[in-house]
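Write out the 3D structure for:
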Amino acid sequence: MALAALVGGLLCQAATAVEPGGAPAAATPGAPARVFVITLDETIHPVSARYFEDSIRRATDGQADLLIARLDTPGGLVTSMESMVTAITHAPFPVVVFVHGAKAASAGFFLTLAADVAVMAPGTRIGAAHPVLAVGEMPEGSVMNEKAVNDLAAYIRTIAENRRRNVEAAEKAVRESVSYTEQEAKKLGLIDFIARDEDEILARLDGVPIRRFQGESVTLALAHARITSLDKTAQERFLSFLANPVVAVVLLFAGMLGVYVEVTHPGLIAPGLAGAVCLLLFLVSMPYLPVNWIGMGLVVLGIVMFVLELKIVSHGALTAGGILCLVVGGVLAFPSQPGIPGAQFARALIFSIAATGAVMMAILTWLLRRTATLRKVTGVEGLLLEQGTAITDLDPQGQVFIHGEYWNARARRAVPRGARVRVAAVDGLTLEVEEVSS
């Protein structure tokens, strides 16, 4: 039995795409095959690529015979997709990509075609793999657009050719953003078959030769396979949560608000600590997001201008500059492309903050200007034009009762005791008054 298990472990070091005409290899008797299942139901980014590559390493350590990747993605970053494709083609065991849920678009299309076995569930779709810029817009017909399209078209051709799939249909998905249903993909030879779940996949692959990327074939006995699910680690789940433009924007604004409160109210501790943690988490999320740092810098500058408006009377100039920076920064900071979920909402969030800040600063500016036109009622200025009563005769000096207080006073013209007087000027602790005629 030990020898049989050893032989089985050696046989599963091959790799991918079902080849009906291949010569079947001898099935491994004895121990059941080890099948590992992972789930990729998010945008393809560095965190998902890390999870995928770690899963292949964990499956290798577990002496896997087969890996099934459940895929449901709108697409993602080319660099992450390329590293995942490389992981598939170099895996020591066959990899099945099972499109379930809704779709495998853009980067997901490349992963599906790169698999040793490509399977789709009923009601799913693949394709729409035309390249788009992660940040900004890619003008149609530009040299940059042409280079990107040609590069990815060549990439999908070499994948399809090595996997013996329909090269023409695969290239159309890249050049023309064509999408295919599961029936169309099966008919065109983009996938191997359609299945409802993992059990049906294993039943279809049991005893069937699977052609690997390098050309060799492996046949697995999957009738009594032992299935193990490889979930994300706590760290990978946390990083996936941070790799969201909306979360990044909220962390940025919350962090700057906390630091501002701590600076203006020293000693509170909690707001400053919370703000620092939010800013650190924001910095952690940045490597996993397609962020334009110039745009993000403008967003930060806009927030700084709003804060300065509260400290410096600029008559609205800083507010206008802050709004402009937030709007332009929001446009540049995150893409509006469909392959980056949350990006549009993140931009809308930045715009809403800019609009809210504009309204608040407009109200504050109006209140400050209104306050500046009001007569002061405290201090020396508050005594001017105040009226009171002469307690003694003023000829020219005496005492008056004004503003609820007794004051030394003098008058240019004699004022009788009991007469109403008005403050004309203040000289230290002496008031210059004049009689108020009836």
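The chain has three domains: 2-232, 244-373, 379-435.
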